[in-house]
């Protein structure tokens, strides 16, 4: 009898341990896309992560991109928009910017993997002889490497949920190995896996009808490669009636409550709310066997949305750059400005100014109505003269001005030319033979010949002068911000700049590289060698952007008087 009791006790103990183990097991959510690209898989993934985090879960999002480049660092912004930079110095897809802005959780190199990286790693292993004479193939070697990367973050034990966004569209040749890996993982992970498929329901204006056929075809395509989606998210311009959603559920083998619509909204930051209204987060929890308790804590997020909706006055900011026709080229700057304007209770009116077209004659007209001006980052000579025109005009008219990376370097060059009286001052990036190399290649960059991943990348500490405007904006003299550049302020000129009124107020404590310059007697004239836009999130806007927009509003009010 005693033995039976012990056996039962042992049995219960095992069951309990099992339960605990299952409970702490990481859940994997895959997000695929169909019909067309640019449907916003990144926003849907971010919204889900936002809701799960607001429920107290530890979440991370990663993106698998099907292109051959090792990372997007060598890509032109015309290809995939802005290159985002993680704290650990990875040049990443811009979706990682969305992930951070929506979740306030930092990403790393492990959060963005390309086909190129997968192949590079497999080929390295082959060269080392790791495959012991076997023929190296897409299945299982490439797919195993993909699966290893998918589980890398989950295996750290730091996350309850790992959301994996598969770039591209189902049916593309490029994404097949990724989709095949998802199929295999689904079997291996069992209940710990949920597949979300995002599709498009077009509205045919002439027929005044929404069409479900592309969604049916896209799901069929996914089924053909062995994946049955658990949840469908339908992107649409118009509300999809319940009947139609039921029809989609029927044709696609999905339960009716798992067909969610994502109707266009005025701001992407409303998407988590819209998804929660349709129980997206609950569905995901239920599908992977996690008990649904209470509601997500959305108060801070709703506070931001309330401010966004309530703002009546407008602040007008100009962004001077050469990619103004591309809405994604300066994504993080646009979002940082929007966050900053919102927390300053203003609507943001962003005016893009093409730096190639900005001449001294056009400056009054182009810049006259602005309350603040941002000089964009960038590479190469194209459009650079327009940045100097803007900077001279802004400095002389004392308009709040924010130079970021190349924008800061241009600030330095313009000041050298027009204040220090060095007419040929330049960056050696633009003119290697300039007699006044006020911006020059960093010492450690001089021997580098490979372009990919070799810039000064990632977060570095910066010490700010206590009474500087920058330090006051941050409320701190110790900050850490992300970099992506090869050139730097040439410290040989530092004294001349400082004597003439442009102060070097931010410095790297280890290398003494100049990271921030400002003209203290101007309203707000600050340049940062780093990119503060990468660290600005909805719930934690970057203080420098907030302060810049505050100065722009004050200037606008002054002008109005
Ligand atoms: N082209 C400049 C450099 O490499 C600035 C880079 C940037 O703006 N991100 O230093």
What structural class is derived from the secondary structure elements? alpha/beta
Give the radius of gyration. Answer: 26 Å
As laid out across the biggest beta sheet, the strand order is 13-12-14-15-22-21-20-17-18
- Seen as an oligomer or otherwise, the chain set is single chain
Number of strands: 22
Query: In percent, how helical is the residue content?
Result: 25-40%
Distance between the termini: 92 Å
Uncertain segments of ≥5 residues (pLDDT<50)? 18-23
Ligands, ions, cofactors: glutamine
Beta-strand fraction estimate: 15-25%
Number of helices: 19
Main sheet summary: 9 strands, mixed
Q: Overall 3D geometry?
A: globular
- Tell me, rounded to a whole number, the average pLDDT: 93
